[in-house]
What does this fold into?
Amino acid sequence: MLVMRRIALVLLLALFSSVAAPPAALIAQQSPSTADPFHRTLDQILDLNVRDGMVYYRALQSSRAGLDRYVASLNVPDATYAAWSRPQQMAFWLNAYNAIVLQTVVSQYPIRGKSAEYPAGSIRLIPGAFEKNKHRVAGRSLTLDEIEKTVLPAFKEPRLFLALGRGAVGSGRLRSEAFSADRLTQQLDAVAIDMLTHDHMIKIDRAQGTISLSPIFSWREAEFVAGYDPGATGPFADRSPIERAIIAFITPRLLPLEKEFVQKNAFRVAFHPFDWRLNDLTGGRID
It folds into this structure.
């Protein structure tokens, strides 16, 4: 009887782990964090709970104390924040935004409700998740939308908007590490390169003559135009400012055949709908 109980317990734990937590092998492989000490807790949380941009939300919910402590620590004095370097400040806001999104989801997980506009389980079904709920960060009371629309633009770095994990499949992929000031340039470069490998961010269809992009580029048009539009000169002079900015942004990172396609300047640019499905890895991958 004792043996049968042990077998049953092992099977139950295995089943729970498969749907609720990162595989044990991944936990065993977790390496010590090398992130900035301020963000080390978040770095460890991401390393354990995020895989290929997807999150083990149920596992994170069951061990959320560290996440809550990290989010509480974000309310640093204004003088402390002001003394940081520009890379430190950018890394801080990216990590703050992404951590708050994780906390927002696990506070309501599994997300209930229905909407004709958003898919089941979407973070958009949490009332006020982006536009109303306030959070104390660096001595300020801000919503997630305010961080994106009023704080980040001041840095004049459009790649920041691709690094925001909005709790959705359609976002730039949430990294399995925190952003750090000393590696921020390389991390943002990796974000830009990674974007080109996922259809929900950009899809180049040479047969149809189209480049379809995430609406993140249109949402943050002013920032991408300011950062990348070379002006109405050269072969793309007749294109709109946002199209010229997109071309300048993606071309250095394209494969040879894709570059050739772009240089012919016979394509149409479109923005596809944003995929608001929750980036939840609990219970299996989302295709």
